Q: What sequence folds into this?
């Protein structure tokens, strides 16, 4: 059931909310990791490179829709915190219509252009056919993936992080079973891994819908909740589209890196793929904390509990910075060996490149922690401008790093683009959080509003909430 995060110890609430979600994210990561491991061990390095080469383009297409769902859920969390059930259900009706329309558009556009996209990315000839077979299946299942992410985000918006975990455990196990069944039993090659992922996501979506219908009264949409009020759609798109746009901006940077890696050859693609899988697994608690902060901030903003927002952000930052420093040291010394789990026959050239990957990045994971925690916190306030600015700066830095540094330093240059991007994104986020928290506490000056990089809307919303609280 839902969890009200507008009362009680902020740090305790955030941690308790994060733990089930962290386990859920680990199982969700198994979708990708199972594909990578099983493909590498059963089909070889070229197949691994094929699956890895499409990661950035998957993130670009799916990230737009998944980011949109996360933005839509922010409004749900704010209305839950405000305890306005009618407005909450109306938000669900509007959001579902938006999600379905976006999913249909993306599915058609992506599946019809899959081959063109791979050629545009200069995918190596020896892996492009496998990459196409895998990617076109994933694109055909966009609807299942987006719907599951939206329903999971809605449950988390009302403070329920346990239910998505249960569904992910079941579907992750199913995904692994289907991987082996399709790849080995039916000899479907890398396409089998794609089918396994899509079917698992579809089952997870159905389970979420059944659970919500039977167990979560507050989320049961009535006929009167389906609205034609265009102001509602405008408000949801105002938050949701920039959210999705931010994901896409980040993904474009990943595409630039992937193009660079494709030019460097299959060994570089395989090494980067193996390394990024390990990095994603170990940085997952940072991402989880970010989602928890978004929900915590949104609920408390809706309830007008501004002092709790400041306390929660400080607590979240402290935990994540310590953790980020720790994983940096772990990856420096053990990253090469961890990457070996995804490298066929322990290829020494690939492992050497993986070791270089972690040697370059390990000191900068604290910057990544700031990005992953502060950006969702700002978005939880309904401020979509600052994260977009941070995303644009991140994109510019990553593209410059990938295209220019790789010319001089090869694989190392491509890797250097990540810390460069994290630094560029951190600057506006830190400045905005500092001034936004000041704005929520007192009357702002013109200088405060300018330096807060878009926090004027947040302040205006906070004034409205204060008036509503005073009236009640």
A:
């Amino acid at each position: 059931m839902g969890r009200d995060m507008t009362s009680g110890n902020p740090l305790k609430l955030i941690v308790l909310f994060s733990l089930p979600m962290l386990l859920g994210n680990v199982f969700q990561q198994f979708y990708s990791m199972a594909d990578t491991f099983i493909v590498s061990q059963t089909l070889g390095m070229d197949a691994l490179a094929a699956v890895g080469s499409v990661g950035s383009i998957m993130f670009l297409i799916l990230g737009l829709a998944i980011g949109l769902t996360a933005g839509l859920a922010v409004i749900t969390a704010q209305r839950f915190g405000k305890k306005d059930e009618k407005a909450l259900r109306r938000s669900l009706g509007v959001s579902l219509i938006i999600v379905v329309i976006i999913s249909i558009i993306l599915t058609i556009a992506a599946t019809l252009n899959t081959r063109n996209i791979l050629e545009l990315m200069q995918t190596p000839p020896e892996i492009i056919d496998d990459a196409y077979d895998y990617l076109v299946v994933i694109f055909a299942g966009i609807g299942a993936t987006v719907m599951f992410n939206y329903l999971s985000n809605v449950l988390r918006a009302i403070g329920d992080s346990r239910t998505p975990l249960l569904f992910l455990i079941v579907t992750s196990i199913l995904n692994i079973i289907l991987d082996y069944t399709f790849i080995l039993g039916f000899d479907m090659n890398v396409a089998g891994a794609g089918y396994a992922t899509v079917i698992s996501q579809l089952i997870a979506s159905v389970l979420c819908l059944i659970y919500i219908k039977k167990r979560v009264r507050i989320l049961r949409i009535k006929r009167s909740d389906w609205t034609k009020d265009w102001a509602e759609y405008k408000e949801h798109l105002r938050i949701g589209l920039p959210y999705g746009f931010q994901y896409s901006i980040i993904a474009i940077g990943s595409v630039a890196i992937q193009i660079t890696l494709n030019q460097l050859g299959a060994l570089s693609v395989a090494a980067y793929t193996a390394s990024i899988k390990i990095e994603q697994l170990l940085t997952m608690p940072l991402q989880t904390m970010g989602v928890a902060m978004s929900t915590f901030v949104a609920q408390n903003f809706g309830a007008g509990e501004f002092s709790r927002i400041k306390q929660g952000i400080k607590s979240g930052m402290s935990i994540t910075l310590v953790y980020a420093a720790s994983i940096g040291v772990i990856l420096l010394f053990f990253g090469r060996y961890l990457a070996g789990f995804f490298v066929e026959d322990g290829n020494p050239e690939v492992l050497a490149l993986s070791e270089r990957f972690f040697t370059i990045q390990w000191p900068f994971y604290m910057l990544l922690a700031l990005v992953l925690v502060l950006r969702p916190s700002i978005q939880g306030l309904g401020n979509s401008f600052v994260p977009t600015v941070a995303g644009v700066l991140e994109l510019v830095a990553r593209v410059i790093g990938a295209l220019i540094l790789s010319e001089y330093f090869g694989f190392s240059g491509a890797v250097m683009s990540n810390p460069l991007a994290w630094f560029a994104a951190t600057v506006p986020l830190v400045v905005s959080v500092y001034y936004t928290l000041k704005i929520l506490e007192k009357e702002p000056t013109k200088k405060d509003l300018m330096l807060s990089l878009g926090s004027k809307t947040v302040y205006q919303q906070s004034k409205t909430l204060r008036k509503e609280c005073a009236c009640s």
The chain has two domains: 8-227, 249-459. Confidence is low (pLDDT under 50) at residues 443-453.
